[in-house]
Structures are given as structure tokens and as C-alpha cells.
């Protein structure tokens, strides 16, 4: 059976989005700087963008996702991303954790709406077929999974920016968890750290 790996990008001050995240600004205003590493450099919401990941960032990403068989994200992330244009862009099927399952997308879109963390993990694990399950956010889903003791590895990509506002990864989180550094990869756009969850 594969591992459950939660991964997300944060600012130095712990924000995973800037303010006013939503379909127009998926990562919030100013939050696009969090994903310079994903896009291969500076980009804007208005100017269009391509996925041009390269160098250490691409090596890190390819290594991380090579074992993924399925993923989980929250409805907030799904909606803020505009449902990625209606088609799952990630490797393997994507389970969307939501209380609103009535508007289930067509199966060919690659998304499955599920209510409850345990049900989402069960479905993703089944769909992964023995491979890893990636939890990609948002912050609330990662907090829930960590609090439930269901995460084997936490991966934080820290962008060299201080946002000052937005959504914080560990806002309200009060659990005591030990982590062990497994791997560190750095580029001009992010420092990626893979942590094993040991407690």
C-alpha cells in the first residue's frame, strides 16, 4: 500500500494564498508569486501563463509525483481553480472533499465528489491501486488529515515571499506533531522540504 503525502506551497510567513482567492485569482491577489516555481518564473493572472517548470523544481516535482496513483483536494481549491477548466490536470483521478456532492461532474472529467475525510481517503486509496495518494490542499484538508493522523509525509514548498495576508496553512491547528527531514531541494523560486510524519 502506498503512502499518503500532503503537499502545498507556502510563503515564508505561512500563507498558502494571498487575499481574495477565487476563480479570478486562484492563489489570491499577489499569491501567484507562490507558484513561480510551478510556472518556471514570474507570471500574472491577466498575462496568461504556461507550466514551464524546470531545473531543481521540476526534478523535485517529478520525484514527488512519480508514485502518485490518485489525489485529494478540497472543494475550496477546486472552485478557486475554476475546476481547472473542467478537466483534472493531475496524474491519476482526483477526489474532491466537499459537503456539496449533488453537482457531481461527469466521470470523464476525472473528478469524484465525496463527503467526509475518511470516505475521501478510502476512495482515493482504492483508485490509487497501491500507489501513493497525494493531498494537494487546500490548507483545511491538510490540517484535517494531519489532525486525524492520516498523513505519512508532509511536503512544504516555501516561496521566498512574505504575503502578510491570505489563508494560513496552520491557522487554528493545535496538534503536536514530530517531523523528520527526508529531503531538501532549493531553487531561486522555492525551497522544497519533504518531511516524514513520525508522531
The main pleated sheet reads as:
8 strands, mixed
Global Rg: 16 Å
Helical run tally: 5
Regions with little confidence, pLDDT below 50 for 5+ residues: none
Q: How much strand?
A: 25-35%
Strand order in space, largest sheet: 5-4-3-6-1-7-10-9
Outline of this structure?
This protein is of the alpha/beta class and about 200 residues long. About 20% of the residues lie in helices and about 25% in strands.
Task: Please outline the helices and strands.
Layout lengths: L3 E7 L4 E3 L18 H4 L15 H11 L2 E7 H6 L13 E4 L13 E4 L2 H12 L3 E4 L3 H9 L5 E6 L8 E2 L10 E8 L4 E7 L2
Parallel strand pairs: 1-6, 1-7, 3-4, 3-6, 4-5
Antiparallel strand pairs: 2-8, 7-10, 9-10
Give a written overview of the molecule.
With 199 residues, the chain is of the alpha/beta class. It has one domain: Dihydrofolate Reductase, subunit A, CATH 3.40.430.10. The protein is 21% helix and 26% strand. The strands form 2 sheets. An 8-stranded mixed β-sheet has the order 5-4-3-6-1-7-10-9, sandwiched between helices. Strands 2-8 form a two-stranded antiparallel sheet. The longest helix has 12 residues. The two termini are 20 Å apart.
List keywords for this structure.
alpha/beta, two-stranded antiparallel sheet, globular, 5 helices, 10 strands, Dihydrofolate Reductase, subunit A, 199 residues
